[in-house]
Structure to design on (461 residues):
C-alpha cells in the first residue's frame, strides 16, 4: 500500500509505502505528524469514504426473485478507481481530521494505491438485517467462493425494505470483503498522551459540567451545536487517544490475543515501566511498582509510566493480529535504556503480526533496531553476542520488514516529472541487511557534536 501526499502541512510532495514496521524521522516541523495524522484518519474512515456502486438491475432482480448473486471479483478489479474516488472525498475531510481551517487544505491531496495482488478477499462473510423481530435479508460469502449472495428473508408484501438501505448494506459488505485485509485497524498513541493520562477523569467531568451549564444557558443557544463545536477543537487522532484513555476501566475487561497467547510480551512491557497498571473493582486506575506494596494514581506516577499507559492497555486488552499500532514519538519521557527496550518490543510485535508505525527523534531506537537487524543472521559469533547481551530470538528482525523515511528538504519531481524543485518531502532511507538503517537525520548532528568535542579536547594541544 502506497500513500501519496501533496501540499499537506510542511510536506510539499511525499510518497511512502506501509511496511511491517514504518518509521518516519527527521527534524521538528518537517511534516512527520501531518503524514501520521492523515494516514490514521484514512484508516479510521475508509469504510465511510469509499463507495461501491450497486447497479439498479441487481436490486430489481433481488426484489423480483428473492435472491441475487454478485461477482465480487468484478468489483475488486475496480479497486483503484474506488480508491481514487474515495481519496478525493477523504481529502475534502482533512479540515475535520486536523480540526483546522479549510483554507489550509485547499491545495492538499491525499491518495492511497494498492497493487491487485495485495487484495485478498475475506474468506467468509455473513450479515443479517432485522427490523424489530423480523429478519429482512441476509448477505453471505462462503469460504473459497467469490460470490456474494443476497437473500430476502421477509415474506413479500409483509415488510417493505427501502432500496437505499439494501444498496448501502450490500456496498458495505463488498467494501469489507475486498479491502478488509488491505487496510489494518489503526490504534494511535499521540504525542498528547501523557497529558491525557493525567486529566482523563477531568476531561470526562468537563463534558458533564458543560452539559449542566448548557441546560441553564439562554434558550437561543443550541446545546448540541455548542457541544459539537467544542469537540471539533481536537484533531481526530488526539480525540481518539483521549476517548480511549477515558474508557480504560471498560477496556480492562477485555483480553487481547497478546494477553491470551503471548504473555511474554506483557512481561517485557512490565520490565519497561517497572510494574503494572491495575484497575480495581471500583474502576480506579493505579500503577503498581514491582516489589512495592504501594499503588500510585496517574498524577503520582512518573511521566514515563503515563506516556506508556495507553500502549500498555492496547497490548493487554485490544490488540489483534494485523492491527497497525501508531506511536508519535515513542521515546517521550523515556530513559535511553527504555528507548532501546521499546524498540525491541516493537520488533517483537512485528514478528507476531502487528504492524507498527512510529515517528521518532530517537537515535537510540534507530540504533537498537540496527542491532536487531545485524544480529538476525546465522553466524556463531552473532549468536554468542545475542545470548551474552540478553537478546531474545523473538526480538530479532529482518531488514525487509522495516521501511524508514526521513522528513527533509530534498529535490523532488513535480508535474509528472516535468520539473524538479527542492521542497519538504519524505526520503526513503537505505536499509542494509548486514549494517542496518542509514539514519543520516541523526548522524549529521551526532558527527557535529563529536567534532566539536574533539576540537575542545585536542585543538589546544
Amino acid at each position: 500500500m502506497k500513500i501519496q501526499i501533496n501540499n499537506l502541512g510542511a510536506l510539499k510532495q511525499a510518497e511512502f509505502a506501509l511496511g511491517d514496521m514504518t518509521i518516519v524521522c527527521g527534524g521538528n516541523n518537517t511534516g512527520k505528524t501531518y503524514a501520521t495524522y492523515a494516514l490514521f484518519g484514512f484508516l479510521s474512515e475508509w469504510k465511510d469514504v469509499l463507495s461501491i456502486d450497486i447497479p439498479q438491475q441487481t436490486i430489481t432482480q433481488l426484489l423480483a426473485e428473492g435472491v441475487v448473486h454478485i461477482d465480487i471479483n468484478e468489483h475488486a478489479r475496480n479497486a483503484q478507481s474506488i480508491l481514487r474516488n474515495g481519496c478525493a472525498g477523504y481529502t475534502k475531510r482533512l479540515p475535520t481530521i486536523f480540526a483546522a481551517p479549510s483554507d489550509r487544505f485547499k491545495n492538499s491531496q491525499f491518495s492511497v494505491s494498492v497493487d491487485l495482488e495485495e487484495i485478498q478477499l475475506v474468506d467468509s462473510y455473513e450479515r443479517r438485517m432485522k427490523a424489530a423481530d423480523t429478519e429482512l435479508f441476509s448477505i453471505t460469502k462462503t469460504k473459497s467462493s467469490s460470490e456474494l449472495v443476497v437473500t430476502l428473508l421477509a415474506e413479500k408484501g409483509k415488510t417493505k425494505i427501502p432500496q437505499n438501505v439494501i444498496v448501502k448494506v450490500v456496498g458495505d459488505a463488498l467494501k469489507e470483503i475486498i479491502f478488509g485485509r488491505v487496510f489494518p485497524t489503526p490504534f494511535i498513541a499521540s504525542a498528547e498522551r501523557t497529558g491525557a493520562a493525567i486529566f482523563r477523569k477531568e476531561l470526562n467531568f468537563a463534558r458533564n459540567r458543560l452539559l449542566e451549564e448548557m441546560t441553564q444557558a439562554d434558550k437561543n443557544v443550541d446545546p448540541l451545536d455548542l457541544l459539537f463545536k467544542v469537540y471539533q477543537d481536537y484533531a481526530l487522532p488526539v480525540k481518539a487517544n483521549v476517548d480511549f484513555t477515558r474508557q480504560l476501566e471498560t477496556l480492562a475487561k477485555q483480553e487481547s490475543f497478546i494477553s491470551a497467547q503471548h504473555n511474554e510480551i506483557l512481561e517485557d512491557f512490565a520490565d519497561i515501566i517497572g510494574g503494572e497498571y491495575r484497575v480495581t473493582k471500583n474502576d480506579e486506575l493505579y500503577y503498581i511498582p514491582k516489589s512495592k506494596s504501594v499503588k500510585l494514581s496517574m498524577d503520582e506516577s512518573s511521566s514515563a509510566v503515563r506516556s506508556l499507559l495507553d500502549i500498555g492497555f492496547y497490548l493487554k486488552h485490544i490488540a489483534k493480529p494485523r492491527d497497525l499500532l501508531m506511536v508519535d514519538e515513542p521515546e517521550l519521557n523515556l530513559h535511553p535504556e527504555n528507548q532501546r527496550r521499546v524498540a525491541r518490543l516493537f520488533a517483537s510485535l512485528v514478528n507476531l503480526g502487528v504492524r507498527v508505525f512510529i515517528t521518532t527523534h530517537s537515535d537510540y531506537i534507530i540504533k537498537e533496531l540496527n542491532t536487531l537487524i545485524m544480529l538476525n543472521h546465522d553466524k556463531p559469533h552473532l549468536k554468542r553476542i545475542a545470548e551474552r547481551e540478553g537478546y531474545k530470538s523473538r526480538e530479532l528482525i529482518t531488514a525487509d520488514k522495516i521501511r524508514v523515511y526521513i522528513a527533509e528538504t530534498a529535490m523532488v519531481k513535480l508535474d509528472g516529472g516535468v520539473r524538479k524543485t527542492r521542497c519538504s518531502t519524505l526520503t526513503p532511507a537505505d536499509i542494509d541487511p548486514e549494517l542496518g538503517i542509514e539514519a543520516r537525520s541523526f548522524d549529521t548532528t551526532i558527527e557535529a557534536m563529536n567534532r566539536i568535542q574533539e576540537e575542545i579536547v585536542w585543538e589546544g594541544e
Residues 193-215 form the longest helix (23 residues).
